[in-house]
Design brief:
The protein is of the alpha/beta class. It folds into 2 domains: 2-137, Rossmann fold, CATH 3.40.50; 160-437, L-fucose Isomerase, Chain A, domain 3 (Alpha-Beta Barrel), CATH 3.20.14. It has helices at residues 15-33, 51-57, 74-81, 105-118, 132-137, 178-185, 194-202, 206-217, 227-247, 259-264, 269-277, 288-301, 400-407, 421-431, and strands at 2-8, 38-40, 62-67, 86-91, 124-127, 160-164, 188-192, 251-254, 282-283, 306-314, 317-322, 336-338, 348-352, 356-364, 371-380, 389-395, 413-417, 435-437. The radius of gyration is 21 Å and the shape is globular. α4 packs across α13, α7 (194-202) crosses α9 and α9 (227-247) crosses α11 (269-277). The two termini are 37 Å apart. Residues 352-436 form the L-fucose isomerase C-terminal domain. It holds the Pfam family Fucose_iso_C. InterPro entries: Fuc/Ara_isomerase_C, Fuc_isomerase_C, Fucose_isomerase_N/cen_sf.
Length: 440
């Protein structure tokens, strides 16, 4: 058997650590292959699309994507689309060490699983230590789908969503079709260029920024931040709040990177935390369905919501995380001001989520069909897993990792405190879409 490898990574993560992980993965793969099988393809990290690499693996019996760090799904999806053989994904795992999220490879696996599901492509996968027999020769993922809801219908209110900028390339999880969304939920989407947000933020009057400056002043470590970056970040909060008022928006979906860092010079994460706490949820990466999901869950829970990535799974627990934008009322204790772990710009919030019952929800387009995806669990008292805003969730049901990948779910889920499963089943009943309860 010929195994073709594509080791994927991005330079904004911990490259030296990624190289260590790749070396260990290659050593395990070579030992498994022995003299019986051949391993072909690049043996160093691919930091972007590489046509030569595609040529090296074109005739392999198995295309093995080595997801060493988080990446978008564009290159991997193209590689898989042109490959006639078996497809497998092996994502590297990192410890919950309380520091930077150095690889974020599980989220990359999640993103790619959604893209492959949209393309009706079966695959096998592993995370962390891999059973290579199972990965390379065993069963592929069998997609899972929801069932009709029998809950009493709960009608979501009409929503106005602001979409500022386009979603990043390779993020199929953030794609949307405005007429299709409107037909399903009645939501209207108001669009704006990202540059218009930046121009507005630069011109915000000082008195409009003052309330956000006061909130930031209460954070530990805020005086250690770059004053210019902090000012620009707080101006984004004021600008977004002004847009919300003028356009009568219920939620927003904002293209947050790389331009907020590379063109504007300040993070939007702290602004998103402040607006979320004030009941205007904002979705990262211009994720319009994520914004709709947040607004629905916020109404059902009557509480702030957090749009999170699931970045690690181990046994019965998982880590929900984002750079630093969860609402402040979710904090377990003290909060600190910090900078983005990859881009090193302010303002972000840093804290662990407080203990309590939680519901995670997504209005999903997985496998090209609408469904309501629900997961429940307990946010537990645990040390900070990764910097930013993160929490450890003990899931109510076993095998959450298997269920998540088989569902083809998008990489963002909205989280609120409390168990809101029955009301969300009612929303699904009103929308006439199936309900998938992960791990059930």
């Amino acid at each position: 058997m010929k195994i073709g490898i594509l080791p994927l990574a991005r330079p904004t993560f911990d490259v030296a650590y990624a190289e260590e992980k790749l070396a260990a993965m290659l050593a395990a793969l070579d030992a498994w292959a022995g003299a019986a099988h051949s391993v072909v393809g690049p043996r160093s990290l691919l930091m972007g699309p590489d046509e030569d690499a595609l040529g090296q693996v074109a005739d392999a019996d198995v295309l093995l994507i080595l997801q060493v760090t988080f990446t978008d799904a564009a290159f991997a999806t193209r590689a898989v689309a042109g490959h006639p053989g078996r497809v497998a994904i092996w994502a590297a795992r990192e410890p919950r060490a309380g520091g930077r999220l150095r690889l974020n490879a599980f989220c990359g696996l999640n993103l790619l699983s959604h893209a492959l599901g949209l393309n009706d492509r079966r695959f096998a996968w592993a995370y962390g230590e891999a059973d290579l027999d199972a990965l390379l020769t065993g069963p592929e993922v069998a997609p899972v789908f929801g069932a009709p809801s029998d809950a009493p219908p709960v009608a979501p209110r009409p929503l106005r969503i602001g979409r500022i900028g386009e979603h990043p390339e390779g993020f199929d999880t953030c794609r949307y079709n405005a007429p299709r969304l409107r037909a399903l939920t009645g939501a209207e989407v108001v669009t704006m260029d990202l540059s218009a947000l930046f121009d507005r933020a630069r011109g915000v009057e000082a008195q409009a920024v003052a309330p956000y400056r006061e909130k930031a002043a209460a954070l530990a470590g805020v005086d250690d931040l770059d004053a210019g970056e902090l000012d620009r970040s707080l101006r984004l909060a004021a600008a977004l709040d002004g847009i919300r008022t003028e356009e009568r928006l219920d939620a927003m979906a904002i293209r947050c990177w790389p331009e907020t860092f590379t063109e504007y010079g300040g993070a939007v994460c702290g602004a998103v935390s402040m607006l979320g706490e004030a009941r205007t949820p904002c979705a990262c990466e211009a994720d319009v369905y994520g914004a709709v999901t947040q607004a629905i869950l916020q109404d059902v829970a009557d509480a702030p919501v957090f749009l999170a990535d699931i970045v690690d799974m181990e046994g019965e627990t998982g880590i929900v995380w984002h750079c630093g934008q969860a609402p402040a009322s979710m904090a377990a204790g003290g909060m600190a001001a910090t900078v983005h772990t990859n881009r090193r710009q302010a303002l972000l919030y840093e804290f662990t989520l407080r203990p309590g019952r939680v519901t995670l929800f997504r209005l999903s387009q997985a496998h090209g069909r609408h469904q309501a995806v629900i997961a429940t669990g307990e946010a537990v008292d645990a040390p900070m897993a990764f910097t930013g805003t993160s929490g450890t969730i003990r899931w109510d049901r076993p095998d959450m990792a298997d269920a998540l990948i088989a569902s083809g779910l998008e990489h963002h889920m909205a989280l609120a405190y409390g168990d809101h499963s029955e009301a969300l089943r009612g929303v699904a009943a009103h929308l006439d879409i199936p309900v998938l309860e992960l791990g059930a």
